[in-house]
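Box 3.1 — From sequence to structure: Probable 26S proteasome regulatory subunit p27
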Amino acid sequence: MGLTPPVDFEQLMNETKEWIKKKDDVELQLKELEQVLTTAGVGMNDPLVDNSGFPRADLDVATIRTTRNQVHRLRNDVHGITAEIEKRLTELHQAKRDQVQQVPSTPSDDDNAIPFAIVNAVAPDSPAYSAGLRRQQKIVEFGPIKRANNERLQALNLYVSQHENQPIQVRVIEEGGNRLSLTVTPKSGWGGRGTLGCHLLPL
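Predicted structure (token representation):
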């Protein structure tokens, strides 16, 4: 399976701004056209013929019909533009939450790697969760900490405490055997306990 190309955050932001500007421009045109109808004393559904079925003499019927058609078209445009903006805002939100793209490690990197800990719990919206750590993943490397030097996780805990607000490379194995490289940044004040927001058990 191929990897998903990384999101160009700046380009996506610029595209979103362009769509928002386009929406503002269309809504301005729409407001001007609706004002034409208001000035004429009619709305979108008022009859343009009299009781005898003839065009009303007090109205410029041709102009009103043209204006109504333009209003219908621009309202549809606004709906389409709004959908594009919502789509890009969703992508921006996801890109912002993902501190690092999850990239499967190559088999040669991990052939001899042995996990030394397992993720027992992860708090929602925690630094660990935002980085991609999930329950039942097995930790192969946590920065420089590996099976040979983790000292029953004491070395890992010390390393985390010394690297708050600094990105740490983490390599994990998922339940299905897929290997991932993640980046987690320990932070205090995220709304929960600790700086990671996850609980590890030694293996």
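Summary of the box: The first helix runs from residue 9 to 40.
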